[in-house]
Amino acid sequence: MLKVSVVRNRTIRKFLASFISSSLAVSMMSFTAFADGEKTGKPVYDRDYTYQNILTDYIYFAENDLTALSHQVGAFACGGDLKWGNGGQGQSVASYANNIVQFGASEGDLGAWIKNDDLKDKNIFAGNYEGGLSFIQENDNFIDMSKAFKALEAQSNALTNSADYVVSEDDVVIQNVPWIPVPEIAININIDKFDGKNIKIPASLLDGVSYINITNNENNISMEDLAREGYVITFDDVTNIDLVFTETCDPQSHTNPVYFSVNADLNNLSPYDQMRNRFGGKGLAGNFKNIDRATELAADDAQINLKGMNLLFNFPDAEDIRLTLFEGHILAPNATVHVEGGNFEGGIIAENIDNSLGAEGHYYPFNTPETHDYPLVDPDDTTDPDDGNGGSTTDPDDGNGGSTTDPDDGN
Question: Residue 88: its pLDDT value, please?
């Protein structure tokens, strides 16, 4: 049976230390709020359900099932079954699962790479857990997944409907490689051709496309700008896609892959590039590890960067997505996302997430994370206090769901 302990209240941490140790011996009790000395209940998530907030706090956010069997640096939340490997060194928010099937992390790992003790969060909440780890606490009320995904789906659609630039046939490049019977087709997105940062790629243009390249007039867009200037790339009406972020991936291991590259010169390819069936060796994979890290907040390690990284890939209509070595964040509220291997920097919002092939998840939050102070709610109270704990289902264009350019707009 799960034990319930007193949730952390940062302003009275020292006062609660002795009480927590005694509370852990109790097999079933309510969380208690000592700030006012009266309110009792269980903690709930203390942010609105915007993709900015979720991707700041969580590396994985799954409405249903989540499998991540290797080392994962950030926190997780899932409304179904969880199979979890190890890690959590970057956990700055309470992790949550409706049902923990497998769990390999240790309590000492949680938040270990975060330098600010107040920012660390060692809470793991679960509706059901039959294992023997005493630090996993019973709480099936921490996140309302139904409410969260209703809001996230609305935000995903709003991004689609507010695109600054819609990719057209003018952005399509065709390369005839003599020894390949079918011409190679790419979409070349030049960000200097338009104002704004919200880009939409219609599904009709992806037929036969093998490559998506993003660049500027000088063919030298910086990785820092791409990571932190709030770019959104929406795949409109795309139901299935296999998106590869490295130029070294064996194409035989994928079915109709689309390669995402940066600063490739599509009109001046070397014979080596052509022979390898690529539009230039400029894959995005791993490049965000080289951007400036907030080492005053966390360990100087490429697996964690708390300075913020807000490149977003939006899939409002997708049902099945395969990702290899991706950089950036994924918003796919109706999809099952398969992480195919390697490492990635960013976060995933999806209906289901399958990372059973051993990909490492590195914690590169959307914004710099902030400390949490969870309100306490009586699970037997059916009233909706609308106190900010995930209650936002307003128009996503009101500043909570539309713009990613302001790093403070979701917190």
Answer: 96
